[in-house]
């Protein structure tokens, strides 16, 4: 039997303080739930790993090999590192790990100590993702970040000193009051730090965030679209000139440092999400866990854990192929025709000739040898491309 490769995502929904733009599932005022939450997170990990849960019934294969583990949030570095060690140990106990498994943890300056970083590295975590967002103090304040640039630099330096050799830095562009010069300054500093990976996200103004209200009331003004685009292209130019590969719309990496976890998602590989609101994809089924931490815990306590499970869809071949296109076109390499043929036994050029011709006429995609990919214009109007594949 062919062995499957999977990724594991573990969600830690706690933050010291909620940032003004963020609508990820995270709480700033529920520290009293941490201990119980971790208890049931480990229980869920064990149940799935041993093949005893709904997730398993939906197709998790006990023989699967874990290629990547991603501990995200929220702010995983906010909680005591003993919990992170326990999570990793539970995974090691109940799953089979690839010998070169990539294990990432998201950390936030202002919540990290040398001891925490040492605990991470000792238990096998080999990749850090640090949220910086901007190097300008006034922008960090405006975003509601809890840290200064100096605290970021201390965290980064400590991470290097304890031995992390694979570090990602998250940045944001298109922020109110952010200028092109601010972005250039951020990139120059990131180049000086010499991180292996840089993610640069264009701000999404999410409803129900304080930032949304500030923009609605015109207290804050977003930069014009052409300014935001010039920020994006400046980032791309500066990082590429300095040896980074632009491999996905928002992601840049030194050669061989692409995030294996994210690449697997864009290649439509399987993953299991553990914890509140975590999403999973196994055996062509997309499902997620319930959105409320109180209910997540209560359902375990009352043996109703089945209620934590929310079914989204079972894909047929057609929706699987469409989604493969949509996810694959996020990568700068695009969709490789041969890979598509190997996976589905069909040629995407014929299958989607109407959509592809239309998009090519609009100069949004191009076919180059084995690759169907976004053009430069397609990078700016990727939404128009996705629309053809939903
Ligand atoms: C899930 S967050 C968690 C990482 C970590 N807690 C932090 O804040 O640094 C991952 C990244 O998503 C990005 N992000 C969060 N909200 C966003 C938004 N509304 N628009 C664009 N990027 C966002 C930020 O760059 C953040 O670092
Ligand atoms: S620290 Fe990260 S997850 Fe927490 S609120 Fe800020 S952006 Fe969101």
Kindly describe this structure:
By secondary structure, this protein is an alpha/beta fold. It has two domains: 5-265, Aldolase class I (TIM Barrel), CATH 3.20.20.70; 318-387, Orthogonal Bundle (Arc Repressor Mutant, subunit A). The protein is built from 17 helices and 15 strands. The protein has helices at 34-49, 54-57, 81-94, 114-122, 137-143, 149-162, 180-193, 210-216, 225-241, 260-266, 293-301, 317-328, 337-344, 348-351, 353-361, 376-380, 382-387, and strands at residues 5-12, 65-73, 96-107, 127-133, 167-173, 197-202, 245-248, 251-253, 270-274, 279-282, 285-289, 309-314, 335-336, 365-368, 371-374. It has a nine-stranded mixed beta sheet with strand order 7-8-6-5-4-3-2-1-9, sandwiched between helices. Strands 10-11-12 form a three-stranded antiparallel beta sheet, with no helix packed on it. Strand 5 (167-173), helix 7 and strand 6 form a beta-alpha-beta unit. Helix 3 (81-94) runs parallel beside helix 4 (114-122) and helix 4 packs parallel to helix 6. The chain is globular and about 55 Å long. The mean pLDDT is 95.
